Fold:
Amino acid sequence: MISISKLLYDLDAAGDGLRYGADSDAEQIRERRQEHPVVVWNTTKQCNLSCAHCYAGADCGSAPGELTTAEGKAMLDELAAYGVPVVLFSGGEPLVRDDLPELVAHASEAGLRPVLSTNGTLLTRERARELRDAGLAYAGVSVDGGRETNDAFRGEAGAFDAAVRGIEACLDAGLKTGLRYTVTEQTVDDIADVVDLLTDVGVDRFCFYHLAYGGRGVPEADLTPERRREAITELVELTREYHSGAGIETLLVGNYCDAAYLVEYAREAFGEERARRVRRYLERNGGDPAGERVADIDYLGNVHATQFWQSYSLGNVRDRPFGAIWDDESNPLLGRLRDRPASLGEQCRSCAYADICRGASRLRALTVTDDIAATDPQCYLTPAERGAGTPAGDGGAAD
Structure:
């Protein structure tokens, strides 16, 4: 995650230490940058909606073989013992599992920070209070545009209103709550509407996701690089407009080309000194986290390099503990991901921002080109911004 509000507008937030090892006036999740991955747990493949971008290909049917309550608790204990800082309960729709509060409580008691990713439509006030009492630290609710756009995108009339009620239920229960939005060709024109919704309902955290390629998330639904750049610029400028009054934390997720863009934006808007400061934070952050600072466990117990890379299993927690799987340096995919930027193609490897981007999504590159070393098709930097072939640290665009 890349924080527009922190890097450009100095808004302190709870994740500053975790992401940047940065000093912050906000109470921190962790004071130091993480040493072990945040783990997404896709607790089920079942969902009450059928969203156009779903990387898990979730549907309304049952999900045989999912980890049981007992297996889930044992896995959470392993994650805590390994030093995982955060576990994100996801799906499918995690609220279809009746044992979700029990699992959240177990994670909290084990010393993990439990957070939730949900479409929000099943979040009643009673369920929000139950999750709060179980120890849930944060709920991220997905809304992908205004009412008409969101309902079409999520395949269900009334999904927008139900999600807003879910957000309000969380806020009423005193749960820290954020709004999640995925930008695609279908949703891009609604960015301002989503930002307006934040202030209307009183949410102070906004996660802007780039489309991941997997499941129903297909390249054909994505933006052109030019339109993507326009969308990011719009969000940066909207953040600038509402920041001074509302103090909303705004995060970019899923495309570390954004890191390079924020350095360039800072230089143009605030000058060279600010650009250098932004870059220093992003160097601490470390670029695309797949295979290192983020991991995924699906509903069957398979471990993945990220929640989006469902097509490749690193191993299964029913066979080996998560830590043993994650530390297995013999796995070829982990080796490639952890050897970036050296394992990237020439355009990415020679880019002035290779160290803070690390080639962004290897999954998108592989999906579109069948080459894991290729350029991420979502890259929107110009040749001049990439340093015209100048390697990072040798007088390129960041120096």
